[in-house]
Design brief:
Blueprint: E1 13-17, H1 22-37, E2 41-46, H2 55-60, E3 65-69, H3 93-100, H4 104-113, E4 121-124, H5 130-137, E5 141-145, H6 149-160, H7 162-166, E6 170-172, E7 181-183, H8 189-193, H9 199-210, E8 216-219, H10 223-237, E9 242-244, H11 253-256, H12 265-276, E10 283-287, H13 296-309, E11 312-317, H14 322-326, H15 336-339, E12 344-348, H16 353-357, E13 362-367, H17 371-380, E14 383-386, H18 393-403, E15 407-409, H19 420-431, H20 436-451, H21 457-471
Parallel strand pairs: 1-2, 1-4, 2-3, 4-5, 5-8, 8-9, 10-11, 10-13, 11-12, 13-14, 14-15
Antiparallel strand pairs: 6-7
Helix pairs in contact: 3-9, 4-5, 6-9, 6-10, 13-19
GO molecular function: UDP-glucosyltransferase activity
Family: Belongs to the UDP-glycosyltransferase family.
Protein name: UDP glycosyltransferase 89A2
């Protein structure tokens, strides 16, 4: 479907600046692929160790996408050689955001010395300081959001009311559709970690507020999922330059044939063969993303819960360091794999998540509710069994469970140890649920596929963005 985008006459030269975290970067690279298909000339800024992420994109668009490699600026809280959030964990975002802010002046000088400088900047919302750079260069900046529209509005309110909010046990967002309420501990980690008068925190806060001053916003979501929240954001910003273009994973290089979809194919075959032997909708897929490592006690509680549920499962287990494994982090309890042979499959390390979620045997996804996982669950047409832990996950779980009715909460908290009896019942109940939730999940999948098909809402917004950028003089 993505390959059908038509190349228009040569268009403007733009700078794309991704943020070096998996969920942020991959979505923006998928967007960049779509913009290249629409004729834009693109320079994409990365630091040296993140350059390999661009290989599929550069191979597919050798004449229109060019890398710009800047050294990763030093920071006292970032070890030398670390250039990606996966090597630091969620707590590394503030220092990484602050470090990348040091590229403001080098970038300004690069623009001024370039014979054909970009006429617009598209940058991740964690790089809000690029709004100030764009204003200094007198060019439009477009903020790219790899999060839900609901979270964009929540962030905006939190940053602009920071001191008042931090004194509350729970925060009501009465100006948003449904007036959602979140406990203090369930607010986004980035906001909670920022400390008043800390220079890095103040820098992050300023950048997040600056996002709302961008000329336009591109969102990795879809109208059918967040219609009320999208309209609310448009009203708040006072313009219609908000472009919903998701799910971008359905429009990237993997889909249009340019990606490395063959990686891990032997394992893919093994997993798919196992799933082929399972009844439709009978398997729950269990995965907590690329960063979260479960403790020994959490691993044991989850293992017992899966066993007690009587439900078929595929459990993807992230492995830790040798020391973490010695302490039981990410270690599957002894005997589980033997006892569960036929009922359960444990995968250690990487797994073909999209392939699994789109298999007809899979009916549920036990997930931390990171935004990319949320979108992949929707595309797979499966219900979500939510165990939010940190970052944006409580907000995403609320959207799925409370707003859309395509999920249930089965646990919460990064360090909580669920009661295995209750967890087992929750999994069993959700997977045998009679129809409403599962039917809604299938309906949402249909809407997501329609959005990225020819003439769908997300494809129309991509075209509208390129057209408006051109009309702006960019």
């Amino acid at each position: 479907m993505a390959a059908n985008a038509t190349r228009s006459k040569p268009e403007a030269h733009i700078l794309v600046f991704p943020y070096p975290a998996q969920g942020h970067m991959l979505a923006l690279l998928d967007l960049t692929h779509q913009l290249a298909l629409r004729g834009l000339t693109i320079t994409i800024l990365v630091t040296p160790k993140n350059l390999p992420f661009l290989s599929p994109l550069l191979s597919s668009h050798p004449s229109s996408v060019t890398p710009l490699v800047f050294p990763f600026p030093s920071h006292p809280l970032i070890p030398p050689g670390v250039e990606h959030v996966k090597d630091l964990g969620n707590s590394g975002n503030i220092p990484v955001m602050a470090a990348l802010g040091k590229l403001h002046d080098p970038l300004f000088h690069w623009f001024n010395s370039h014979s054909n400088p970009p006429v617009a900047i598209i940058s991740d919302f964690f790089l809000g300081w690029t709004q100030h750079l764009a204003a200094r260069l007198q060019i439009p900046r477009i903020a790219f959001f790899s999060i839900s529209t609901l979270l964009i509005s929540i962030f905006d309110y939190l940053w602009n009311n920071a001191e008042k909010v931090k004194s509350l046990d729970e925060v009501e967002f009465g100006h948003l559709p449904g007036s959602p309420i979140f406990k203090q501990e369930h607010l986004p980690s980035l906001f909670k970690c920022c400390k008043q008068s800390d220079p890095d925190s103040e820098f992050v806060k300023d950048g997040c507020i600056a996002n709302m001053k961008s000329w336009a916003c591109i969102l990795n979501t879809l109208d059918a999922l967040e219609a009320r929240n999208i309209q609310c954001l448009r009203t708040h910003l006072g313009h219609h330059r908000i472009f919903t273009v998701g799910p971008l994973s359905l429009t990237g290089l993997e889909v249009s044939g340019g990606g490395n979809s063959g990686s891990g194919s032997d394992q893919n075959d093994q997993v798919l063969n196992w799933l082929d032997r399972c009844p439709d909708g009978s398997v729950v897929y269990v995965c907590f993303g690329s960063q979260k490592l479960l403790s020994k006690e959490q691993m044991e509680a989850l293992a017992k819960g899966l066993e007690k549920s009587g439900t078929r499962f595929i459990w993807v287990v992230k492995s830790g360091t040798i020391r973490q494994q010695e302490e039981g982090y990410g270690v599957v309890p002894d005997g589980l794999e033997e006892r569960m042979r036929g009922q359960g499959l444990v995968i250690k390390g990487w797994a073909p998540q999209v392939l699994i979620l789109n298999h007809k045997a899979v009916g549920g996804f036990l997930s931390h509710c990171g935004w990319n996982s949320v979108l992949e669950a929707i595309v797979g047409g499966v219900i979500t069994l939510a165990w939010p832990m940190e970052a944006d996950q409580y907000v995403n779980a609320s959207l799925l469970v409370d707003d859309m009715g395509v999920g249930v909460r089965v646990s919460e908290g990064a360090h909580s140890i669920p009661d295995s009896d209750k967890l087992g019942r929750a999994i069993a109940d959700a997977m045998t649920e009679g129809g409403g939730m599962k039917a809604e999940a299938k309906h949402l999948k249909k809407k997501a596929l329609e959005a990225v098909s020819h003439g769908g809402s997300s494809m129309r917004d991509l075209d509208r963005f390129v057209e408006q950028l051109s009309q702006h003089g960019a």
